Structure formats: C-alpha cells, structure tokens
C-alpha cells in the first residue's frame, strides 16, 4: 500500500511544483493572516486544493490536515492522515521566489510512514518511507553521523536571540557563540531537509504546527536524526509545539546547554 501511495505522490508533488513555478508568471494575490509577517497567497490555497482533490479521489477513506484549512478538522490521528503544507516558507515564495517547499507527511495511527519535501525552485525532492530509507531525487541519503557543536551549523530565527515572550535570549546566546555558524532559511521544511542531507546540523524553533514538520520528521528520522521539542520530548502531530531537530550526539549536547 505505501509503495502505491508513494508512486501517486511522486507524480502529484512534481505536478504541484510545476503549477507553482507557472504561478510566477501570474500576479499573486497576497493576504496577511495572524500578523503582517504571516502571509498567504492564492497559490497556497490552490495547491492545497490540488492535493485534496487527488487524495480524495484515490483514497476516499483517508483524512487530510492542511494548513489552509481546506481539508478535514481532526481531533485525533487514527487511520491514515495526510498532513499538508502546500507552501512552506510563503514569505520566501513571495519575496524571493526560492527557499520554499511543498511539505507532506502521511501518517498511520500517528506513526509517520511517508515524508516529502519538494524544493520547488531547485527541483529537489526529498522523500522517505518508514524503514525503507530517505532519498534526494532518487539518490539515497546516508545515515547521519554524530557531531559536536563546535563543528556544527545550527539554524535558528534571529528573533529568538532578541527580547521576546517565548525564550530568554541568554539561554540561546552560549549556543550561538559556540557553534561554528548559524543560518536562517525561513522554511521549517527545508531546514529539516537540509539536516537529513547533512547540510545543516541542528534546527530549533519555538512554535510550529504539525504541517510545518510532518514531512520532515519522517525524512530526518529515516537517516537517524533526532526530532523532539525543546525539552527533548517526542512531538505529536495534532498540536503546536517547539521543535528541535538535530544530528545524533549534538542533540544531547545542545539540550544540556539550553536546559542549564
Ligand atoms: P509557512 O510559510 O508555511 O507559514 C518561517 O520561519 C517558518 O515558520 C516557515 O516554515 C513558516 O511556515 C513557519 N511559520 C509558522 N507560523 C508562522 C507565522 N505565524 N508567521 C510566519 N511563519 C510561520
Ligand atoms: Ca502560513
Ligand atoms: Ca509552514
Ligand atoms: Ca504554508
């Protein structure tokens, strides 16, 4: 069953990517949601609808959780649930026409079975099937090796090291100081894909929704990366949470610093 779903999805996600690239030739309708930095466009909604139509036609018993709310309202994760972020990194999509991704995770009874992150501008499809490995455009991604903070690039949003209402900047400062470098890409999905591919070593953020991380979780775990909240606890795919994704070894080292 998972191989069959994967075959459909490989086609659907590339077709959706083509539609997004075509949309660059049109005028985007841009709106704000919860704040001036929280953007949504007509393309976000159209791409979510694109997946929903195909999933419903092919798998009428499956349920769908999508960021733009065109799917189902879910209270639990029983059965097969598709968790979809049609465009992760909408601000990058609007301002930069790159560094955004389609992110999809397929879960069964709360367990991640398939994960997809499609970097549309670069035509790079990261995907994984639980127990079968992770791939980038068909090439297997090797297992992640242990590393240490002083050899690591960590990804975090600069807002968290300024005064804010979620975390004491003094907690993160020693981390930023000790790391080899820091980055911020503005797409949680791509940041997780980069960890799976070994391009980043850790990623942390204070409040994300299931659709931001569902695809990435399957892909990262498949190569031996660790995905928890900032307290080191497992994530569930039904509520918002902080997120901390890292190579093995480094995960323990960073947790020890931020929990000090
Ligand atoms: P989005 O583009 O799908 O909304 C940006 O740093 C990352 O945080 C993106 O993955 C973005 O996903 C996510 N994000 C979650 N909530 C957000 C919000 N309220 N405003 C902007 N980005 C948000
Ligand atoms: Ca959004
Ligand atoms: Ca998102
Ligand atoms: Ca989105």
From TrEMBL:
Gene3D superfamilies reported for this sequence: 3.40.190.80, Fructose-1,6-Bisphosphatase, subunit A, domain 1
Binding site for Mg(2+): 67, 85, 87-88, 212
Pfam families: Inositol_P
Reaction(s) this enzyme catalyzes, per UniProt: a myo-inositol phosphate + H2O = myo-inositol + phosphate
Domain of life assignment: Bacteria
Cofactor: Mg(2+)
E.C. numbers: 3.1.3.25
InterPro entries on file: Inositol_monoP_metal-BS, Inositol_monophosphatase-like, Inositol_monophosphatase_CS
Annotated keywords: Hydrolase, Magnesium, Metal-binding
EC supergroup of this enzyme: hydrolase
Molecular functions per Gene Ontology: inositol monophosphate 1-phosphatase activity; metal ion binding
Single Gene Ontology BP annotation: inositol metabolic process
Name of the molecule in the record: inositol-phosphate phosphatase
Species the sequence originates in: Anoxybacillus tengchongensis
